[in-house]
Amino acid sequence: MDDDGRQATFGADGDLSDRDPDADATNDFGDPKGSDETDGGYNRYAVSSLLQKAVRRSDEEVAAWAAWELARSGFAWNLWDRLTLYTVEDLRAGEDVALLVERYEELATERWEPAEWRGRLCAIHAALACARATSTREGPNADEYFRTVAEERAEARDAGEDPTHDFPVGEFEPGGEYDVAFDKHTGEGSRLGRGTRFFKDHGARVGPEGEGELSAEWQRELMRSHDVEFSEEEIEYAVAPVEADDRWTEPDFGSDTGTEE
């Protein structure tokens, strides 16, 4: 469910339906809590927003407090929903913290009670893990940029014009910069007769770090024993790393199409 949907949780009488029913009815000062009020007397939307900003800015103390405040106040569902989102919205791709957050949530909500001290420890640990991870807005920025470019491309085509911005692959067709993508696993590549030779020579290359020593040796031996006869030049090229500043240019090894021999 999207953000707006999860936050629209008020019943007809104005009470918040998703607060933990076992949460205290009064705040730290002994006053009755409002429907969106935390135990400390804060608005839970503001605390949730602060948690996200603390994760983005790597402020461990503020992130830990905000998570603790939401957990103890009966808003654990809000906390864990938001922390899970932050792992993909505000952290660099590849961070293992996404798995940690999932595990902490499982412990806090399935093994223990979210608002009791062990549940609160899970909340704090999850928030600290997020705050200590590498922050970036690359995911949302990419999503918004590609969406905007898609709209511009469509508008340009309707107007019979070239778009000011385009996707990184451009027209994306055989013979273009990304020709290697059209191997035997695609309809276009099959129609071009590109089989195992093309795939091994070009489509399976990695980099720019290249294959590990053991993996490269396995690849060499597989190509030497294959039904398709590969030259030593082809074999060594297949395990060589792609160029960091030219990842897509490929030689032809004497075949115009890369078809099987």
Structural notes for this entry:
- GO terms for molecular function: DNA binding.
- Residues 155-165 have a biased composition (Basic and acidic residues).
- Residues 1-41, 155-214, 240-261 are annotated as: Disordered.
- With 261 residues, the chain is mainly alpha-helical.
- The chain has two domains: 3-132, no CATH class; 175-261, no CATH class.
- It has helices at 3-7, 44-56, 60-72, 76-89, 97-111, 117-132, 138-158, 187-191, 196-203, 213-224, 232-239.
- The radius of gyration is 27 Å and the shape is elongated.
- The two termini are 53 Å apart.
List the helices and strands and how they pair.
Elements: H1 3-7, H2 44-56, H3 60-72, H4 76-89, H5 97-111, H6 117-132, H7 138-158, H8 187-191, H9 196-203, H10 213-224, H11 232-239
InterPro entries: DNA_pol3_clamp-load_cplx_C (IPR008921)
GO molecular function: DNA binding
Region (Disordered): 1-41, 155-214, 240-261
Shape call: elongated
Q: What is Rg?
A: 27 Å
The tally of strands reads 0
Mean pLDDT: 87
In sequence order, what are the helices and strands, one letter per element? HHHHHHHHHHH
Number of continuous helical runs: 11
Model regions low in confidence, pLDDT < 50 over at least 5 residues: 1-17, 255-261
Fraction in helix: 40-55%
What does the largest sheet look like?
A: none
Number of domains: 2
> In angstroms, what separates the terminal alpha carbons?
53 Å
Give the strand content. Answer: under 5%
Quaternary organization: single chain
